[in-house]
Amino acid sequence: MTKLKTHSGAKKRFKLTASGKIRRGHAMKRHNMRKRPTDMKRDARGMCIMDSCDAKVIKKSFLPYGLS
């Protein structure tokens, strides 16, 4: 069977933790920030761990060999 390609958009958007979980950025942070409450903006800093059901799809389809 041929080798699978890593999705180039997924390479830029996701990071793997040492235990193999996937980290992602928070949504709704690109524009219209003046409308968002301060606590929402503060909670959306940094990255968060993706849910296992969504991470399974990302790992299988977009990142077949992980990130290197």
TrEMBL record:
<dbReference type="Pfam" id="PF01632">
    <property type="entry name" value="Ribosomal_L35p"/>
</dbReference>
<dbReference type="InterPro" id="IPR021137">
    <property type="entry name" value="Ribosomal_bL35-like"/>
</dbReference>
<dbReference type="GO" id="GO:0022625">
    <property type="term" value="C:cytosolic large ribosomal subunit"/>
</dbReference>
<dbReference type="GO" id="GO:0003735">
    <property type="term" value="F:structural constituent of ribosome"/>
</dbReference>
<dbReference type="InterPro" id="IPR018265">
    <property type="entry name" value="Ribosomal_bL35_CS"/>
</dbReference>
<keyword id="KW-0689">Ribosomal protein</keyword>
<protein>
    <recommendedName>
        <fullName>Large ribosomal subunit protein bL35</fullName>
    </recommendedName>
</protein>
<comment type="similarity">
    <text>Belongs to the bacterial ribosomal protein bL35 family.</text>
</comment>
<dbReference type="InterPro" id="IPR001706">
    <property type="entry name" value="Ribosomal_bL35"/>
</dbReference>
<dbReference type="InterPro" id="IPR037229">
    <property type="entry name" value="Ribosomal_bL35_sf"/>
</dbReference>
<keyword id="KW-0687">Ribonucleoprotein</keyword>
<dbReference type="GO" id="GO:0006412">
    <property type="term" value="P:translation"/>
</dbReference>
